[in-house]
Amino acid sequence: MSTVTKRKFISIGSFILGFGFFGALDGIIFHQILQWHSVIMDTTRAGQIVSDGVFHLAVTIALVIGGFLLWLGGNPTEHTKGLRMLIGGFLIGGGTFNFVEGIINHHILQIHRVKPGDPNALMYDLLFLASGILLILIGFMIRRVATSKMKAMDA
Fold first, then answer.
1. How far is it, in rounded angstroms, from Cα 99 to Cα 135?
2. Are 19 and 62 in contact (CB under 8 A)?
3. DSSP states of 21-55 as a string?
4. Is 154's pLDDT higher than 60?
């Protein structure tokens, strides 16, 4: 397998792993520990448990796929700035989860809020979106340093 292909596996795998990891964190922290919300709030308790279960299954599948792609990519330290590619992709994936989930579920579909019923619910939703944007920006900064150095070495 070529070095370029392995780098693509690391790049895509780290993004999917980050997406799944931050989805799992969302489910563990907000759904289970804090019990602030479920995926679908306007249903019975059993419906909320089922919706959370489907959500956990989806993020677990993302974790497995991301891990498999990273395994195909091999050791990231064997590639020029491979560890930065991995960390950057992971943060971009996690930030993308927070941003996309926040926009779709909190604002467009309005199936739940980060902390429903709280007088500051909008603030929690906006902070969740901001955390996604911040993670994406940090991830891109880390990857950009890695990508620009790789291109300079390839030239």
1. 10
2. yes
3. HHHHHHIIIIIIIS----S--SS-HHHHHHHHHHH
4. no
Closest to 90 in 3D by CA, of 8, 151, 10? 10
Residue 144: band (very low, low, confident or very high) from pLDDT cuts 50, 70, 90: confident
Number of domains in the chain: 1
* DSSP type of residue 80: T
Cβ–Cβ < 8 Å for 43, 51:
yes
Domain that holds residue 65: 3-154
Express each pLDDT in 16-34 by its tens digit: 999 999 999 999 999 899 9
Overall average pLDDT of the 58-80 stretch:
94
Q: Is 29 within 8 Å of 21 (Cβ atoms)?
A: no
Apex 5 CA angle, 21 and 92, nearest 5 = 30
The SS3 of residue 150 is helix
pTM: 0.88
In contact, 63 and 21? CB cutoff 8 Å: yes
